[in-house]
Specification:
Number of strands: 7
Number of helices: 8
Largest sheet: 7 strands, mixed
Structural class: alpha/beta
Strand order of the largest sheet: 3-2-1-4-5-7-6
Helix content: 25-40%
Bound molecules: S-adenosylmethionine
Length: 211
């Protein structure tokens, strides 16, 4: 698990967050065994946060950028209203096969629609209003995703962006991806269309509410 916190404290917080269930435990095991970058998967704490925020916003339309093996997608789907749906975007046909396998075993799996292809293209075709959006794919496009999403969000809707502390590299950006995250964070902080809070949970999570 990627963490900036003392691992013992992270473990304590994990143990005091609602367990997501056996299907999620199995999906973690399969992701560890069958993928090269299992650490990309959000864990129980962030997963439960996604479910909670989705519920609190009473989301009927959610959009996710970065499906991977479908762990965060399922957490979002669990929080959707009964008629709610999640559109999730990825470019990887292999890891998303695992996602589809697990969604098929979940009572909320049929609320999830996978769009394979660059997220910028998929987002262009979504008209909204979007209640909840989760950004968790290629860091270089975070600001582009933001600028496409904000006008499509409903007032009071929430955008959640993952990895905004980028393992602490935001304090000394060297690589292109480091600089992209720094640019994104500054862009969000200066955007008058939202209220936002940056949480130092896991690798950093920004929650932004559309005003
Ligand atoms: C950090 S992972 C997502 C993890 C996932 N949210 C979870 O918790 O299990 C990022 C994903 O973004 C996908 N990705 C990368 N570039 C993309 C793009 N341009 N459009 C859509 N997805 C992309 C990758 O294939 C990868 O599966």
């Amino acid at each position: 698990m990627l963490t900036l916190l003392d691992p013992a404290i992270e473990h304590y917080a994990h143990e005091h967050s609602t367990p997501s269930g056996a299907l999620f435990d199995e999906l973690r095991k399969v992701t560890l065994a069958e993928t090269e970058l299992p650490q990309m998967q959000v864990g129980r704490i962030e997963g439960q946060l996604l479910t909670l925020i989705t519920r609190l916003t009473r989301a009927t339309l959610a959009v996710e950028i970065g499906t991977f093996t479908g762990y965060s997608s399922l957490h979002i789907a669990m929080g959707l209203e009964p008629d709610g749906r999640l559109i999730t975007c990825d470019i990887d046909d292999e890891t998303t096969k695992i996602a589809r396998r697990f969604w098929a075993q979940s009572p909320v799996g049929d609320k999830i629609k996978l769009e394979l292809g660059p997220a910028l293209d998929t987002l262009a075709g979504i008209s909204g209003p979007i209640d909840l959006a989760f950004i968790d794919a290629d860091k270089e496009n975070y600001t582009n995703y933001w600028d496409i999403l904000v006008p499509k969000m409903r007032k009071g809707g929430v955008i959640i962006a993952d990895n905004v502390l980028w393992s602490g590299k935001v304090l000394d950006p060297q690589e292109t991806s480091d600089k992209a995250i720094v640019e994104f964070n500054d862009h969000v902080a200066n955007d008058p269309r939202v209220d936002q809070v940056m949480l130092s949970v896991r690798d950093g999570i920004t929650l932004a509410r559309i005003i």
